[in-house]
Amino acid sequence: MAVSVDEAVSTGPARDRTPPARRLGGRGRSALEVALLTVLAVVMLFPVLWMIETSIKENRDVYAVPAQFFGFTVTMDHFKDVFVGPDGGRSALSVAFLNSAVVAGVSTVLATVLGVPAAWAYSRLAVKARKDQLFFILSTRFMPPVVVVIPIFLMYRQVGLIDSKLGLILIYTAFNVPFTIWMMKGFVDEVPAEYEDAAMLDGYTRLQAFWRFTLPLLVPGIAATAVFALIFSWNEFVFAIFLTSSDSVRTAPPAIAGLIGGTTTDWGLVAAASVVFALPVLVFAYLVRKHLVAGVTLGAVRR
Amino acid sequence: MAGIEVTALHKRYPDGTVAVDHVDLSIDDGELFVMLGPSGCGKTTTLRAIAGLERQTTGDIRIGDTLVNDLLPAERDIAMVFQFYALYPHLRTRDNLAFPLRAEGLPKAEVRERVAEAARLMRLDSLLDRRPRQLSGGEQQRVALARALVRRPRAFLMDEPLTNLDAELRADMRTEIKHLQGELGTTMVYVTHDQVEAMSLGHRIAILNKGRVEQIGTPLEVYNRPASLFCAAFIGSPPMNLIEVEVADGKLRSQGGLVLTPPPGLPRDRRLVAGVRPEALEVTEPGAQRSVPARVVSAEWLGDEIIYAIDHSGQRDVRVRMPPTVRFAADAPVGLRHTGGTPTVYDVHTEELVA
Ligand SMILES: Nc1ncnc2c1ncn2[C@@H]1O[C@H](COP(=O)(O)OP(=O)(O)O)[C@@H](O)[C@H]1O
Ligand SMILES: [Mg+2]
To answer: What is the ipTM of this complex?
Structure first.
């Protein structure tokens, strides 16, 4: 944490530049804001920076006392180790990353395909006891995974889903569908039902009206929802570690966790694996960042 | 083209709300029929039931000679214009207009021709390549109207299409809609909560209240003989004065001594209310002939007329419409005189017209 203190102190001059006699509002406040934000940014980003640094340090620099922030030898060996096994073939970690991508991707697609039409139905159709149903759907998320993992484990063992990607995909889908329904219902509610009404009067069936008019307007909402579902599945640890055991099925979070422990821990490898693990989500979230905050309709809504 | 017959319509939403209690309507072929009523009285629900967007709980709907209860919206051959215009946001005006025709599978040449015709009718030629968000509210409304008429449906349904426009534009569009309907001769059901719009547009008006029809009639009938206290209070700006009266010596007499000619066939021994239009009263100098003493509460000068609120034996809101040349100060003692013909008379308990 030495660095964060250093950095925090270094923001001092920025504050000093504003003479105390200056008016309290305006620039004075904004300088204070800048200072606070800088402190905040440093505190928040330090672990990330440290992870990235560790991933490109040689192992002896990792353990150096005092810690080295600059001037260490940069190496890409750890990243190579993430993907290439000691025998020159694919490493167990790279298989785990692939598994993670498959499990997260497929479960997100499934949750979206199931959840979006359900959200539309809850928003548009006269569903009996709609509120109760929606509450029930939400209530399935009240249970933390760790509480239900044992019963799930027993059930999975009965039906032979233990240690299979399909098993993980199903459980992640089950967890993401309620979330997708709730989040998408908000987005569907935002799209005026009159588009569909007009389309139905124009000669389309209800389903065609949904498909051709409402769905295109929902794309930003679907993107936002899918990113959240994807992040959940990608990061999920508890189910993954309980329900899988073999290297060929295991996803990245338990695989990375498995690197720690034993007699020695290759912290460089752990850090490199973590960087690789964090990247896809960051990139994906960055790509859809506009949708994450944007309104849903394409305009023309004057109520 | 076709008339529309609504029989004993009743609609209860799944949450238990009874939006339409009992509605009977018989709309003639080629008629411009207005449904008028306060917000929440079931106008939209009735219209959506006619369109097939909402299934009625009980009751029958016929368009032309066809019972349409079980037909899909698309099979009913009607067009609807929504309060929120519902133009497809990702389509240009041209494609918004062509859309219903393409859905029907018309040949391209005919689609182009019909779109051009509708665009000419609604003066949209310069707007054909814009998207909805590049159009003003009035322009969007014209596109919505054009989209409704491009299909040449058997009937138009309009749900408060002018509510989102500003006052001036609304008056223009009103004229335009009326003209268009006359030109095309297509049956139109027009829903509004604005009585001025209803009076100026409708061949006939149905006044709805709490999911029931209170009165159906021409604008003149509805204005001159409101069928219930609700209609009396709803139509006219300011609305009818409702003055409690008693029958005495063959005359109607208010508490403050105002004397009105009773209509024939008045029931006795019932509490009655007389409906008197603001223009059927007159503010006079105090003590003028046949006048009763009263007091000015306030005066609203509207340019071409003055609306006086008069205190008449404790009833403080008797409205009187006077020409702008006659001025009385607030609080001035004045006379109040009835100048019109026979008033309408309502039973206080049933709230209905008795004579
Ligand atoms: N989908 C619905 N579900 C439940 N109640 C509704 C629904 N739509 C309208 N209502 C209720 O039905 C009544 C009539 O509504 P509506 O037909 O929209 O009235 P109006 O168009 O005359 O303002 C209102 O009390 C309204 O709250
Ligand atoms: Mg309405």
So the answer is: 0.82
